[in-house]
Amino acid sequence: MNQSNAHQSNGLQRVFEYHQATKHQFQAYASGPGYLDWANQPDPFRRYAGARLIPLDAIEPTDEPRYDDIFISERMPAPGAVNGQTISQLFYHSLALSAWKSTGETRWALRVNASSGNLHPTEGYLICGPVKGLCDQPMVCHYAPRVHGLEVLAEFDTELWNTLCSPFPEHTFFIGLTSIHWREAWKYGQRAYRYCMHDVGHALGAISMAAGGLGWRTHLLDDLGSDELALLMGTFRDHDAEREEPDVLMACVPAELATQETSLPAASVLSFESLAWQGSPNQLSPSHLDWGMDDITQQVSKPRAACQYRSVKNPPLSWPLPSRPVSLSRVIRKRRSAVAMDGQTRLSRDAFYRILHRTLAVPGAPPFITLPWKSHIHLALFVHRVDDIPQGLYLLVRDPAQTDALQQALTQANPWHKPPGCPQQLPLYCLIEAETQAAARQISCHQDIASDGCFSLAMLAEYTEPLQEYGPWFYPRLYWEAGMIGQLLYLEAEAAGIRSTGIGCFFDDPMHEVLGLEGRKFQDLYHFTVGGPVEDTRLTTLPAYPLELS
Ligand SMILES: Cc1cc2nc3c(=O)[nH]c(=O)nc-3n(C[C@H](O)[C@H](O)[C@H](O)COP(=O)(O)O)c2cc1C
User: Fold this and answer.
1) Which of 61, 102, 317, 482 could crosslink 329 through cysteines, CB 3.0-4.6 Å?
2) Residue with CA nearest ligand 1 atom 14
3) Whose CA is nearest to atom 6 of ligand 1?
């Protein structure tokens, strides 16, 4: 074994250990603080003191485009010009505040992108050339959701911009994401890294959907290494505030010019180190506990390398789905987690199949067009209240090439069969017909939301094979895919007039036992529930921004 293989194998071992150690078991939850240390509650808003703020406009909701239209290339909106207004819209429909909630003296903000515990570890960045109505010079900015504005961290010359984006079509710009792990670790301890990566997936999904509404497409620049990402977003700089770990950069391109280019010229990236960086990040908590975030981050750090991902053999196909008169912008901004499900609302079979269909990576459609790898996540569904479908445990195979492997692995399943009326294009199978509400609730940390909806689900990831094939750095990417499915499920539920909720608290190995899964070939990474919500009438809802247009 050469040195680099030995390094990778050691890193993989550490990732496997982290994953195992952060499983919740019936007998014990993964280690965490066990209480909320309010004196150290992290500030949910990172701000850069001394950086110039470019305020962005609030965006009026519109009936067009319809939510359903952005998934179909013939119906998606024509690409919008890149200008101050459309850049504002992109952020307003992806990472902005969506409302303030209050009860008594307490007030907290909700956002367009969901986040575990509403802690929002994900920060957004924009790297762009001169943009009409926004800036005359190329720049790197941090997005400040509290005020819906851009904080200018560095400006640079047009020559550097031109070489940086020379491999990309005209009108391309870049959006980056970082995570402040401490925000989640403060509440969830060691398991927090997983939640941060789910949240990156939610943010990627939110950005891809918002871009779809503007006729743009997003895709990851996954050749970049972690150190290069830190240079591009300026998080390499020394400061005393909490660390921001760079996660990813994506290109945003008009759909008609979409390219799969994944590289930025290495020399241009290096020159970001010597830009005149502005602004000092604020400290979020007075003191901190170490929950091992730096260690797992180091293990999954990505080197620069051209990513040669396996391509999908038989991409999923679509079938004609009527376009509903549902506005994309309203669905996006009204998305909320259900805090309780009513235990009564039923979903029609067609609506159920439509939601599941949308979770497939149909070529060209957001949000999954963003991810350069084939789907690695499959859905094990607890069906509780769907008309004309027996209650039971079902499986949606998001990459049909995995059907045999899953059939062998899920040893508790009866012979698989397609449920009644299931479109041929939907790789959905019934594994066991049974009442599964109690099991769903128990497995999701005894949370009623998992049993009282129309259905809940576990996201089963192909685990050892992609990690061995690509390396430890692929571990967070499995969570990004899971989070992206989650963000899509939120929007699908909203478009169907119901609600959903992400469930990060679940018992990992007991869920594997329900399915008869042994070993590490597949692992459960995330749960979700979809159903009729019960509103919490004790809370007051206030607009996200003083001038919000409703
Ligand atoms: C990764 C992730 C895990 C979550 N886990 C749970 C959970 O176990 N139980 C729960 O009630 N809500 C859970 N949620 C929902 C969040 O608490 C919710 O997104 C957050 O409070 C913000 O509210 P909003 O989604 O309405 O914006 C989770 C959300 C995410 C994104």
Assistant:
1) 61
2) 502
3) 503
State the amino acid at position 183 in one-letter form: R
Read off the amino acid at residue 77: P
**Residue 426, by phi and psi: left (phi above 0), alpha (psi -120 to 50) or beta?**
beta
Share of the chain above pLDDT 70, in %: 99
Ligand 1: distance of its center to the CA of 119 in Å?
9
Instruction: Give me ligand 1 centre to Cα 203, in Å.
Output: 13
- Model pLDDT, residue 358: 97
Write the burial class of residue 457 (CB in 10 Å: 0-12 exposed, 13-18 middle, 19+ buried): buried
Write out pLDDT tens, residues 297-356.
999 999 998 888 988 888 898 888 999 999 999 999 999 999 999 999 999 999 999 999
- Is 122's C-beta closer than 6 angstroms to any atom of ligand 1? no
Beta bridge partners of 140: 127, 154
- Give percent helix, percent strand, percent coil of the chain, each to the nearest 5: 35, 20, 45
Q: Note the CATH number of domain 336-531.
A: 3.40.109.10
Q: Domain 31-36+84-97+114-299: give its CATH superfamily.
A: NADH Oxidase (3.40.109.10)
Per-residue pLDDT of 390-400, as tens digits, reads 999 999 999 99
Phi, psi of 416 (to 5 degrees): -70, 140
Please tell me the distance from the alpha carbon of residue 73 to that of residue 65, in angstroms, as a whole number. 13
Ligand 1 center to 338 CA (angstroms): 9
The tokens for 336 are 């909320």
In 3D space, the residue among 440, 415, 441 whose CA is nearest the CA of residue 430 turns out to be 415
Length of the chain: 550
Give the confidence band of 389 by pLDDT, cuts at 50, 70, 90.
very high
Closest atom of ligand 1 to CA, residue 202: 31
Ligand 1, residues 116, 119, 488, 536: which to mutate, most atoms within 8 A of Cβ? 116
Domain boundaries in the chain?
Answer: 31-36+84-97+114-299, 336-531
Type of residue found at 10:
N
Any ligand 1 atom below 6 A from CB of 336:
yes
Q: pTM for this one?
A: 0.98
